Amino acid sequence: MSDPVIRIFSDLHYGDARSRLRDLAALRPLLHGADEVVLNGDTVDTQIPGRPSGWGEVGEFFAKAGPRPTYLTGNHDPDLDAPAELSLAGGRVWVTHGDVFYEAIAPWSRHAAELRRRLAALRADVTPMEWARVETRLRLNRAACVALPELIDVSRRTAAARVARLVRTILPPTRLLEMAKSWRETPARVGVVAGAERPLARVVVLGHTHYPGVWEAPGARGLRVVNTGSFARPFGGAFVELVGERVRVVRIVEAGGQFRPGRVVAEWGLEK
Fold first, then answer.
1. Domain containing 230: what range?
2. Of 64, 177, 186, 211, which is least packed with CB atoms within 10 Å of its CB?
3. Taking 70 as the threshold, does the pLDDT of residue 180 lie above it?
4. CB 249 within 8 A of CB 258
């Protein structure tokens, strides 16, 4: 019996005008040949005020698409009834959205100050030993993000709405600096958390920062960090394919109104 083909995606942000994914059917070429798909958080945005989240449409599509779907929660869909992490290949591949690696969940966000305030309140009754556990931080992160709505309707696709989103992204300039800092620090942050809390992991798959890439975590003895990016501009994304002992990172390309597998970015075998 052949090994199942598992593909891991993140940050579809379906229904968000910043996402290039406007029709779920455009994903079909990415699902062909897979036995299971893992949707690693921020699949939809459940926090847009006055707008249905889109979970019904997403659930119906993946229920019929073929591969078995496994959902994980992210900071934009914190109220989804699903886990916030997944271990594969006997714990050697650890999948989580990525917010657990940042003290303020999303320090580049306009919500950063409010998230810090909420987390401080939630931590008040938690011991330092309990807080150090990944499970605790993921649970409290999700609680902090619930009912934290977008300040503007991100589903609007008008020219005025695009300009407003651009302005909110680049101003104040400290937001861009915080983003760049987060991209630079991610491999080291992942190495520290995984080394302490998930020592069996040889590969950590995340999204969250929308910055795709493959790195080795410094000082973590060959731990690879894979960020699958997102379906949003400007960087786009990739997916991780796990087949038995082989890991592949494949770039996602958009052509003819569909998303398809592109070039293989990296490939390696898992260490025993």
1. 5-269
2. 64
3. yes
4. no
